Each structure stands twice: as C-alpha cells, then as structure tokens.
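WARN retry 2 of 3 for item q-0093 after timeout on previous attempt; input resubmitted unchanged.
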Amino acid sequence: MKKWSEKKAWDWYNSHRWIRGCNFIGSDCANRIDQWQSYGREERMEVADRELQLCEDIGFNSVRLIVDFEVWLQEPVSYMDVLEQYISLCDKHKQSVMIVLTTEAQLPRGDGEFVPKALGEQKYVLGYHQGRLPLTEEQQKLKPYHFMERPDLAKKYIKMVKTIVKKYANDDRVLCWNVYNEPGITIRERSIPILDMLFDAVRSQKPKQPCTADI
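OK item q-0093 returned
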C-alpha cells in the first residue's frame, strides 16, 4: 500500500458529506484510562450511548477515538471488546469513527523502567486537560519519550496498532486512520522515524481507509 495520489484523496473527500464532529470521551470518564479499561465498563457505555445521541441530534456525523496504549498493554483482549462497543455505539448514532493510533499528549517521562498507570478507580482533577494535573517541577526536568522509543515497548505498540488496524481495515464504520496525532509537538524531530514505522505498520494491514498524520 502506497501514499494516495492527490486526486484519490480529493475523490475520497468529495464522496463524503461535510465531516463534522469531536474527540469523543464520555463525561463520566476521569481520563482516557477510564474510557478504555474494563472497570466500570457498563456505566461508561450507558453514558456514551446518551452522549453519542446528543452528537447525532446536533448534527455531528463523525468522532475521533484516541487509543490508550497503557490500558491495551494490561488488558489487550478486553480492550478490543471495549473498542468494538464504542464503534458500534457510534454507528448506532450515525457517527463514523476516526481512530487515533498515537498522540504526543502527556507522554511518559524519565529514563528508568516504564510502569503503566494503575487501572481501577480514576480520580477527577477538575479544570485540567483530560483530568490530569500539570507537571510538577521535578517531572518537567525528566525527558519525555514516546513508547516507540523503547525497544521493549515498541514491539508491543506495533502489535497493538496492527491488531486494531487488521480488525477494522475493511470496516465501513471506520472513516480513516489518524496514524499519528500532531507528530513532533513534544519530541520534535524524534517523531519522524516513529511516524515512518507506524505508517509501515498500518499499511502492512492494507486498510481501505485513508491514513493521516495531522500537523
């Protein structure tokens, strides 16, 4: 699978109604771990059902779902079930889905062993982006890194990407793949080889949908 031509991209775009929507996360989710973990799943889906109905009512027709590697790492089977539930609810409410496979927002920091965030009850921190406090002075001194920059984690990250893309490569409910959200916004030029590796991983699964990376 190669990069689409400009004509093919415009033909695809013009074949769709005006795409309008939002990044979707239920209002009862303290953060993205809360969105994707199995803990509290039934309650999360009830709220998502109501709020995706609101999306439909106000004229949205597409939403972005941003994956969470730390949850997938700890609950890979359950994670795929939760993803399917979200996509099914979106389809029920006439919302196509853009799946975001990686983003540089709130990368882990440091040079020691990576420890994924604990699952279970998540605490709200009102007034901050995605319910998380700003970095402390000590945290700011630590170097941010992408999971793909750690060899032991990179293999697992690629496995997650391939697993998700393979399952939905020919699914009409998926509008497109946001392979990398805002590459370089945190780690600058270090994002370039990661971008290449992720595009290779996605394209190896031969998705029929377009693949994007927004600046």
